[in-house]
Amino acid sequence: MATWRVWDPAVRCSMTGSPDHPVVVVGACGGSGTRVVAELLISSGFSLGYDLNDPRDNLLAVLLFNRRSVLIDTDDEFRTLVDIFYRRMEGETAFTPEEDLLLEALAEKERLQHDADFLSERLLRFRTPDVEDVRPKRWGWKMPPSHVMLHRLLKVDPSLRYVHVVRHGLDMAFSTNQNQLRKWAPVFLDRDVKISPRDALSYWCETQSRVRRIADLFPSSVLQVRFEDICQDPTGTGRRILAFVDHRAAGAILERFAEYVTTPATMGRHKSRDLSVFRPEDLAKVEAEGYQIGP
To answer: Which end of the chain is more exposed for a tag (fewer CB within 10 A), N or C?
Structure first.
C-alpha cells in the first residue's frame, strides 16, 4: 500500500517565482467560490494560463498535479514537475527528452475524474505554443485541490502566494460538487468514505485544519478568504486579496469586481436541513472556524 506524503517534513527549496512578482495559486474545497477570485486576478492583469475550463481551472496544472500519486512523488520528481510547469506558464514549450517522457507518463493512464482523451488533449496543449507569445509579468493558476500539495509547493517556492477560499462547511456539505470528496477524502481521512453530507463535512474540517497548520509554517504565504466576506464586501475583500499578492488594482477594477460578485441562492442552504447526521466534533470545528450553525 502506498504511503501518502500528506505531510512531508523534508524542507528543500530550489526555485522561486519572478523576483518582482510572486506566483499566485488559488485553491479550496470544490464549490467554494474560487472562480470569483480567479476573475479578480484576471481583470487585474494576471495570466492564469491559456488552457482553462469555464470555471477558470488551469487544465495544465490538472495534468501535472491533480492526481493522488502527487503525494508519493519523490522530492526530485515533484521539484522537476514544478520547474516544468513554471517554465510552461512563462511561455516555454521546448522540453528535454527526459521531461517529455515524464509528461507522457502523466497522460498515458486515465485517472479518477479524468479519462485518457482528456489527458492526451492536455499533453498536446502543453506542447503547443500559446497564441499570445508574450511572457506574463504576473501569473498564477487556479485549481481547487491545489491545497492537497500546498506544503510541497511552498517548500519548492517559498515566495509563492496561496489564496484559500473558505465557505461555510455545512453549506459545502450539502453541495452537489463532491469531486474532492471522492478523490481526496479517502487519502486525508485515511478511511473509506461515502458520498454524503456527513463525510463531506469531515473532509472540509480536515482540509481547514491542514491549511491552518501550513499557514502557521508559512504565515506570509497563505491567505484564507471567506466566500461570505467576498459576497458581503467585494471591494474590501478584493483589495485585501490583491494586497496579499503584492498588487494594487485601479479603483475601476474593484468596482467592476463588486458588480460581478453575486450572492448565490445556495448561501445558507444548511439552515433548512437536518444537522443531526453530522459528527459533533465536526460541528464544533465549523463553529471554531467562526461560522454560525443554524438560523
So the answer is: N
